Here is the input.
Amino acid sequence: VKVVVDKSRCTGHARCHSIDAELFQLDDVGYSSVTTSEVPPGGEDAARNAVLSCPEMAIQLED
Ligand code: SF4
Here is the structure.
């Protein structure tokens, strides 16, 4: 499973980072620096929670 962040939607709430700081690293101004990344084994639940927590609906999971 891959996690994809649409940077054009991200407004830097950092909720994703608070759920999984390794998967969702932030850039210098607090926006998600992730564009596409493979979800590590066992990290799917956190990734799904991040999808639900993002107020901008900027995060998607792809098979
Ligand atoms: S929660 Fe959404 S808007 Fe906030 S930093 Fe993460 S991807 Fe961006």
In short: Residues 5, 10-16, 24, 31-32, 54, 56, 58-59 surround iron/sulfur cluster (CB under 6 Å). The radius of gyration is 10 Å. Residues 44-53 form the longest helix (10 residues). The helical segments are 15-19, 44-53.
